[in-house]
Design goal:
This is Response regulator. With 118 residues, the chain is α/β, with parallel strands linked by helices. 41% of the residues lie in helices and 21% in strands. It has a single domain, classed as Response regulator (Rossmann fold, 3-Layer(aba) Sandwich). β3, α3 and β4 form a beta-alpha-beta unit.
Length: 118
Amino acid sequence: MKKILIVDDAPDSRLILKSMLKNYDVNVVEAKDGVEGWRKIVSEQPDLVLLDLHMPHKDGFSILEDLEEEWMGIPVVVVSGDTEEETVSACEYYGAKAFLKKPVVLEEFKEAIKVLPL
């Protein structure tokens, strides 16, 4: 069974993403901020990370940079309300496989998680 980690400081956002995954045969793990998210990336070795950008303690950009530095090869789909062109470009530069804007549209979500064969 594939493991998906949702890293987002907003409980509502985690709940929505988790509900979008309910029809997939996946194990969902959650983290409420970037520090917890990084710990769970290292300990859980998820198959996919759904990552918010703006969080307390450690933001999503730092996690993307750390993943690149560590050569972990875990695909990341960024899920953020910050859709500025430079933000999206920075996410792509640091290896994000897809970028979803909040609020997430189900069809766009399904397309984005195709980076992980489920």
